[in-house]
């Protein structure tokens, strides 16, 4: 991953817990082309320590990005870094409402309830902020379908992908073809590159030594 050096330094030092680094992490994580789960997690953890600085729009954007890769654990891991009330208590605040809607979308995708998923997101305005979201989700849904069957009814497939033509389908999979009138046949599956969802925090021991020494000097 071509991660900027400044972001790399944040993730490998005690700046990982520095609230002054929030704006820089927010700019990096909110970039349309950025999918860096380690950086996403770091930002969410700084929000945990400094809840008054939590940016609801940024949190929603990170969850939307993670929602695309619903077969991984990224979405649920990020969601559980939010305050417990957001998912598990009744609340009408913006963060809770937005997150619960996205969580419903995640459950629909994870349970292969694709028709229900498209119904849910039509009512979620925050998802519309990410231009590539729908096309990327279609790719991931098609991977699931191709992993379980070699052909499928055209009408059902179009419903699952929320499309209306073979041209739209062939934009996702150029090798898919219509046979026997209303059956779509898949000639090969779309390969998904492995993406590690786990992450580690690498902070050098000497950084903690400096922190402890400073604390001792302050208290003496």
From TrEMBL:
InterPro entries: ARM-type_fold (IPR016024), CSN8_PSD8_EIF3K (IPR033464), eIF3k (IPR009374), Transl_init_fac_sub12_N_euk (IPR016020), WH-like_DNA-bd_sf (IPR036388), WH_DNA-bd_sf (IPR036390). One of its GO terms (biological process) is regulation of translational initiation. One of its GO terms (molecular function) is ribosome binding. Residues 55-170 form the CSN8/PSMD8/EIF3K domain. Gene3D superfamilies: ARM repeat, domain 1, Winged helix-like DNA-binding domain superfamily/Winged helix DNA-binding domain. GO terms for cellular component: eukaryotic translation initiation factor 3 complex. It holds the Pfam family CSN8_PSD8_EIF3K. This is CSN8/PSMD8/EIF3K domain-containing protein. It comes from Tortispora caseinolytica NRRL Y-17796.
């Amino acid at each position: 991953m071509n991660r900027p050096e400044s972001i790399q330094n944040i993730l490998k030092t005690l700046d990982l817990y520095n609230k002054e680094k929030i704006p820089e992490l927010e700019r990096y994580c909110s970039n349309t082309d950025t999918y860096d789960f380690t950086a996403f997690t770091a930002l969410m953890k700084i929000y945990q320590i400094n809840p008054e600085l939590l940016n609801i729009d940024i949190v929603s954007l990170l969850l939307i990005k993670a929602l695309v890769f619903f077969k991984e654990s990224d979405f649920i891991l990020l969601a559980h870094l939010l305050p417990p009330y957001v998912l598990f208590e009744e609340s009408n605040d913006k963060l809770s409402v937005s997150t619960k809607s996205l969580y419903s979308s995640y459950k629909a995708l994870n349970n292969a309830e694709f028709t229900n998923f498209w119904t849910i997101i039509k009512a979620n305005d925050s998802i519309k902020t990410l231009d590539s979201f729908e096309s990327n989700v279609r790719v991931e849904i098609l991977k699931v379908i191709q992993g379980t069957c070699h052909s499928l009814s055209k009408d059902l497939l179009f419903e699952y992908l929320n499309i209306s033509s073979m041209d739209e389908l062939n934009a996702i999979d150029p090798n898919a073809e219509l046979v026997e009138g209303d059956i779509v046949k898949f000639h090969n599956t779309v390969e998904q590159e492995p993406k590690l969802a786990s992450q580690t925090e690498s902070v050098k021991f000497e950084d903690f030594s400096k922190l402890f020494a400073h604390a001792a000097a302050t208290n003496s």
